[in-house]
Amino acid sequence: MSKRILVVGAGFAGMWSALGAVRLLDQVGRTDVEVTLVAPEPTLHVRPRLYEQDPEGMKAPLQEIFQIAGVTFIQGMVERIDVAKQEVCIVGSGEDVSRQHLGYDRLVLATGSRLHCPPIPGLKEHAFSVDQITDASRLQAHIQGLARRPESASRNTVVVAGAGFTGIEIAAELPVRMRAALGSNAAVRVIMVERGADVGPDLGPGPRPVIMQALTDLGVRWKLGSGIAAIDAKGVTLESGERIDSDTVVWTAGARASKLTAQIPADRDHFGRLHVDRNLKVKGLDSVFATGDCAYAATDDDGNYTMMSCQHANNLGRSAGHNVAADLIGVDPIPYSQPKYVTCLALGPWGAVYTEGWDRQVMLVGAEAGALKKQINTEWIYPPASSDRAEILESADPRRIVVA
Fold first, then answer.
1. d(C-alpha 33, C-alpha 226), whole Å
2. PANTHER family this protein is in (predicted)?
């Protein structure tokens, strides 16, 4: 009787999990194990690029890669996971609302994360985001439509809620994008609002002077120490009581793991990520693995844990795929390890800042770092371009660590 490895999600971690599992099965000559992936569409959404222009183009097709590799693709969304029965309930996507139950011998949960939207008055009704392609497209259409509104300070002002990684990247892009829509001489204001005491609170002090200089040069301002209390159609009210009039509010403040993690009876961190062992198996469960933004995984033996980023998702996926197959067929796993940590933060036309290590030592800045960021965004994080099955599977080797 054949067995099934079921991967849920077609993001970076899900794609590599499926390919990594097929790679090991292929190496040992096992043809009795089916690798199946379930997702709304066979497409990789290149989420790290959604702060850029033209978000509709930030996707890569996966159907051909799956067909060449031998991954069975099922279009739909997993609505429910029954760990005891080892099955999932899948609801069709689009107009197809039919449901089917699908069993598994091993499950890999790779459904990523979503932007966290707390119950702030007006947030859902009036704020934009760059969390998903549809969100980023909606923001772009809004910006392009601002020129049809009467000129005012509110029209020309953007408030970016959150001064973390995503907040900085979109804020650095917005002055140019706003002037492209309103005219090169428009008096554009981009204001970052951060509850913490610093811009880039999670990035640490290492790259902060570079970030502050870049934002200053780009004309981006910031207000620290007070979060947003309410949002309406014409602006925001801060927790301090201050009012900022703005027709455009972009929410970037935080992410949470997929809600499906709540259906797994295991420990989770404060982001909703499942605690996993070094082989990425969910602790306390025999048949469930978690990867990407769904996994709280140690990167090394020094107390560092994965970030919600494609840098970690790519390699978590490769490792999860290999290890879930190894677990099922009884061969040795390759424990996940990614001791090298880097960041490359885009800073709009100014360039970027590239750091190495968990203490984020600055290695490159400006145009040189910007060229590296472009290479990462347009080459390194994309699916294999080859149509050769051996090359595709070789790229899923968990020992092939991609650091960016």
1. 54
2. NADH DEHYDROGENASE (PTHR43706), NADH DEHYDROGENASE-LIKE PROTEIN RV1812C (PTHR43706:SF45)
Beta strands in 201-351 (DSSP E): 220-224, 228-232, 235-238, 243-245, 248-251, 255-257, 274-275, 288-290, 295-296, 342-346
Amino acid letter, residue 122: G
Asked if 102 contacts 77 with a C-beta cutoff of 8 angstroms, the reply is no
Q: What is the pLDDT of residues 292-328, one digit of tens each?
A: 999 999 999 999 999 999 999 999 999 999 999 999 9
Burial class (CB in 10 A: 0-12, 13-18, 19+), 277: middle
Residue 194: phi and psi, rounded to 5, are -135, 130
Do residues 186 and 149 touch, judged by C-beta distance below 8 A? no
Tokens of 225: 């120490």
Planar angle of CA 56, 58, 62, nearest 5 degrees: 110
Q: 3-class DSSP state for residue 24?
A: helix
| Model confidence band, residue 96 (pLDDT cutoffs 50, 70, 90) | low
Instruction: Count CB atoms within 10 A of the CB of residue 341.
Output: 20
Q: Which two tokens stand for residue 350?
A: 């100014």
SS (H, E, C) 277-288: CCCCEECCCCCE
118-249 shares the fold of 3-114+255-340: yes
Euclidean distance between CA atoms 228 and 239, whole angstroms: 6
Residues in Cβ contact with 168 at an 8 Å cutoff, skipping those fewer than 6 apart: 192, 199, 200, 211, 215, 345, 347
* Nearby residues of 328 by Cβ (< 8 Å), 6 or more positions away: 3, 5, 33, 105, 106
* C-alpha span between 298 and 323 (Å, rounded): 15
Assigned CATH topology for domain 3-114+255-340? FAD/NAD(P)-binding domain (3.50.50)
Which residues, 6+ apart, have CB-to-CB distance to 235 below 8 Å? 154, 157, 159, 243, 244, 245, 246, 247, 249
Q: Kindly list the domain boundaries of the chain, sorted by start residue.
A: 3-114+255-340, 118-249
DSSP label at 377?
Answer: I
Q: Give 332's contacts (C-beta < 8 A, 6+ positions apart).
A: 326
CA–CA dist 312, 253 (Å, integer): 20
pLDDT per position as a tens digit, 7-31: 999 999 999 999 999 999 999 999 9
Domain 118-249 is found in CATH 3.50.50.60:
yes
